[in-house]
């Protein structure tokens, strides 16, 4: 689990309140590429996030080092997402809709 800086957490709370969505949905909206015509599915989002982390790896490592956090966590997350993508079940026609209990319905 990552601990967000106070200003980031505050911004997420403001965005969630303004849009009348959960904090999780507000953060998801911020992570989505802006040029999409439709929201990403779960697998698409994992692939997009993995690609983004790989591209920004050096910047992320520098942020972790500056904060005194373990920079190896960045590589662990990248590796875990790569494993998830590799192991994802290939079931044509199957739609994966997930609801996190206690977080409300997807918007």
UniProtKB/TrEMBL annotation:
This is Uncharacterized protein.
């Amino acid at each position: 689990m990552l601990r967000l800086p106070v200003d980031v957490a505050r911004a997420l709370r403001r965005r969630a309140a303004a849009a009348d969505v959960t904090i999780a949905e507000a953060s998801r909206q911020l992570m989505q590429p802006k040029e999409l015509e439709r929201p990403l599915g779960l697998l698409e989002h994992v692939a997009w996030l993995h690609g983004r982390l790989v591209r920004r790896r050096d910047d992320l490592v520098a942020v972790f080092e500056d904060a005194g956090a373990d920079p190896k966590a960045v590589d662990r997350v990248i590796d875990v997402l790569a494993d998830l993508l590799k192991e994802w079940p290939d079931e044509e026609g199957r739609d994966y809709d997930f609801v996190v209990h206690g977080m409300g319905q997807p918007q």
